[in-house]
Amino acid sequence: MNSHESRYKWVALSNTTLGMLIATINSSIVLISLPAIFNGVGLNPLQPGNVGYLLWMLMGYMLVTAVLVVTLGRLGDIYGRVRIYNLGFAIFAVTSVVLALDPFTGGAGALWLIGWRVVQAVGGAMLMANSAAIITDAFPARQRGTALGINVVAAIAGSFIGLVLGGLLAEWNWRSIFWVNVPIAAAGTVWAYRSLRDNGERRPGRIDWWGNITFAAGLTMLLAAITYGIQPYGGHPMGWTNPWIIAGLAGGAVLLALFGLVETRVAEPMFPLHLFRVAAFTGGNVASLLGSIARGGLQFMLIIWLQGIWLPLHGYDYAATPLWAGIYLLPLTVGFLAAGPLSGALSDRFGPRRFAAGGLLLMSASFAALLLVPTDFHYGVFAALVFLNGFGGGLFSAPNTSLIMSSVPAHLRGVASGMRATFQNAGMVLSIGVFFSLMVAGLARSLPTALDAGLTAQGVPAGAAHAVSQLPPVGTLFAAFLGYNPIQELLGPQVLGALPAANAAALTDRQFFPDLISGPFHDGLVIVFWLAIVMGVLGAAASLAGPRRRAAAGEPDAEEVLDELYGAQPLNPVPVTEPAHR
User: Fold this and answer.
1) What is the pLDDT of residues 333-363, one digit of tens each?
2) Is the pLDDT of residue 389 over 90?
3) Do residues 428 and 24 make contact, with C-beta atoms less than 8 angstroms apart?
4) What residues contact 248, with CB distance under 8 A and at least 6 apart?
5) CA–CA gap between residue 293 and residue 287 (Å, rounded)
6) 321-328 and 141-172 helices cross at what angle (nearest 10)?
7) pTM of the shown model
8) Contact between residue 532 and residue 389 where contact means Cβ atoms under 8 Å apart
9) Read out DSSP for 294-356?
10) Which of 37-46, 145-154, 309-318 is predicted with the least confidence, judged by mean pLDDT?
11) What is the Cα 335 distance to its own chain's centre?
């Protein structure tokens, strides 16, 4: 490799890492800034009619990236990965300006933000779908794991950096959450257009329109129905009996089944299903999906734990909890940043499988340890455990990506990168529905009794206390998630005004609500973390799946599968079997 080529690979890595960082920061920066955003546009998030705005602000960006990354990766394979990537940077820069200039308030202001976040997600999906393929094209096999490790860890760490950055900016001005993207995206766009070039294998092809339509519609219906299932319906704490939710789940499943049928019938499928005959590709993507669900659930639960319970119990004002929640979660980000590049370099030398599996097992162990931590924990213990969780995630991410990307032919790297991102992003969206549903189920068992007893102990009339205790647990959960103290609003001035001043003051004190829900919240947390443990262990097993050193008689190994599918093309892969040396 000459000096020009050697220099270009680091330029490609630097720019794509910046692109992934900005794309993933924006998947979480809104998460912790929602109280400031709702206040900025003049919406009360605790009113039942506004829950839909809250859900779409949470999931709209992640849903669009999950749906579009495969299509945009395929477009990169056909028309040039750099061309699609550069366009994504430009879209991201423009939409950041539009979002910051939201001219409306109330529901219209929320819809403006949701709609333009969807457009911004198209740009983010272009970056996500093609960055790993551009790096794989630019780097030789012996350095690919290290390069992908830096890129992937920057991407996943971005989702945690967004929590800290969002907390800092929300303290200042909610519009700065979007303005901060503008100079970075503009500089990255100019840099990308001036310096990146397509040096990967491109083949003319056609767009699989029926595959794209059935996949996008099916995945959107399924993920949206799962997310909306956490809202109450017909006297039930959740909406799983809602006919629209049932129709969404069934319709999404049918469309995805139809998508699978379409992909077996078209000459140039959007989702090359035959890639799943390669054990490393299948196992890596299954592990990525399970790890993403567990990691996404962890984000939500830790934010609720800090903003809604621990910080108010330790004297922090509700208005300041987003900032301090981001600061107290820094060990999670540090763990990712510490482990990611290291695991990429080590996987180049010793093979990726054991590092990917070990990372998920370490994450599972940290979830198990968090089960033993009381709701009002000692911060040093909490920080050490979330650091270990982040370190495990960093150990897993780079080897997992290297395993997936090195198991496919060069001309399918764009679509493989998109498929990998689809599993990862779909896991984040699924985590909203899965973990919130489990948490609401846990709260529904013990929260009404705790609310009723706590309110009547302060002199609230039995009828008023019972009415508050029967409100859907999801409202209480969102109050904790957003760092709100809802007691004053739930009881109203008439009830509070009739109580002795000392009782009214106790009810509206910043510590009353967190102390009241801490026990029921821990009940739900136990369910959530047990599921995360199971997902981590299953993901570790999937990471280890692969061809045995000697295949049974008549059984094809990975190389034979690839030769059968694509002919004897040079793949230049990172070895997907364990190396001979130890």
Assistant:
1) 888 888 877 787 777 777 788 888 999 999 9
2) yes
3) no
4) 221, 222, 224, 225, 228
5) 10
6) 150
7) 0.77
8) no
9) HHHHHHHHHHIIIIIIIHHHTT--GGGHHHHHHHHTHHHHHHHHHHHHHHHHHHHHH-SHHHH
10) 145-154
11) 17
